[in-house]
Amino acid sequence: MGAGAHASGRPEHWKIPESVLVVIHTRDLDVLLLERVSGLEPGVPYWQSVTGAKDRPDEPFEAAARREVFEETGIDCRVGSPLESRLRDWGIENVYPIYPQWRHRYAPEVVFNVERVFGLTLDAPVAVRLSPTEHRHAVWLPWRAAADRCASSSNAEAILMLPRFLENADDRACGN
Predict the structure, then answer these.
(1) Of these four, 30, 40, 44, 100, which has the most CB atoms within 10 Å of its CB?
(2) pLDDT at 118 over 50
């Protein structure tokens, strides 16, 4: 095996085509959006929820979600943190084609990504710590406005489902 390759034969620089989308929100349906440093088109803002690829093929989606939230916002929902139980797997997987301008990050035969959707409920909007290499701004918006601002249709659709997921979480909390 040559330098820079994994045991799987995958060069270290190739991204794994499995990622997470984490909608961070409050019970009042305010949603955190982050503006990427680089979007699809130069000069066009690209707003999104927390997203990120798995670090390794065997990394569980939930672990990737907890890691990405912490890396991109400084919000700690990792195992053992007070917010650990606030991260919920919504049981949704989106499969979408990888944008041509980002395909160079993946192995040549990879054209689709699988994205697992999670929600993280906070009591109120909080200040976040952004990674300046990934995001330039953060904003809390009411859920419909957040969905309208999203650059990704799968991200917007997830945000539009937020009221239903909150109702289901409240039902579980009440024992229904």
Answers:
(1) 30
(2) yes
